[in-house]
Prior knowledge:
The protein is of the alpha/beta class. The chain has twelve helices and twelve strands. The protein is globular, with a radius of gyration of 21 Å.
Amino acid sequence: MKTATPPNIQMVDLKSQYQRLKTDIDREVMEVLESTAYINGPKVRQFQADLEKYLDARHVIPCANGTDALQIALMALGLQPGDEVIVPAFTYVATAEVIALLQLKPVMVDVEPGTFNVTAEIIEQAITPRTKAVVPVHLFGQSCDMEPIMAVARKHGIYVVEDNAQAIGADYTFADGHQQKTGTIGDIGCTSFYPSKNLGAYGDGGAICTNDDELATICRSVANHGQASRRYYHDLVGVNSRLDAMQAAVLGVKLKHLDEFAQARQDAAAHYDRVFADIAELQTPVRQSNSTHVFHQYTLVVKNGQRDALQAHLQEQQVPNMIYYPVPLYEQEAYKNAGMNGKDSLPVTESLCESVISLPMHTELDIPTLDYICDAVRSFFEER
Ligand SMILES: *Cc1c(COP(=O)(O)O)cnc(C)c1O
């Protein structure tokens, strides 16, 4: 086993990335400071236009964070208290939180064990006459299988709000061969620019994205106190949710590197895959053939109840790691029994919460660091 002093490994290395982009980022941020256009203004408009172009989306509405993006999207759909919204139980809490906050009913469903994503079949089984929307989450950086999901949603007349917080930049390929970016396929897509996300700001940020002109107008209004086109005239009860110019300046620089960031993550993932391929107790990330994977997380499934022991071993070896996610949403104190439709457990979600572990994943992983992490994982299985 390796005895060398471990490198200072980070789960997410924002510092080295900043140092690489420092000249451009410092210049852009200084321009904002000098301009005093701290809210809205040219940097926010430019980033919005750049992101519309990158995503090939008609409308991007920047906002304060990813959770706000989801809330604004759901507010724009005009849902009524008690309306049901289908959401995976294996996701970050924000997805269900906004549903509950708006007094809608989160109906939690299971995910597919390979990709960790919801499928059209799972969604269709949960649809009732009260269902108004579904929020598919492109978990860990890979698209849900959106074409059948859109078909089921259209068949039942429900809205699709994509939670694209972890997958910005991923491409989904339709049966006819055409591709679309995740977040631009459903009625509305929502993303987060939280610093550790694939396109991360240096603070909070988020965006809503839609190809529907009418929904775009409503989202823009909801995000701006429900103000319509005339200043100080308010048609809706809205919220105050803005992307500040400093964050837009940082994001504008980073957007130009987003595809190269994805490539670096994919290279690191391929390295992990190669080393772990012959470890029978590990399930490496399953790639869906019709989606690219932008690896927000590199998440292993550890078989035979060994996850916690592997985690302890990695801790000892000073290899950072995280459990995304340790608890099914419906077992969280705040969401106990929330809309489980009579079922009291979802088997895939339960099993994933007990068996997943995520390894360091970011844009600055070099070969010695990857080798150190891989050796640490391998030594656990070799010692038994
Ligand atoms: C990060 C994240 C959010 C929330 O984004 P914030 O910007 O932190 O509010 C929502 N959903 C998922 C799946 C996320 O990973």
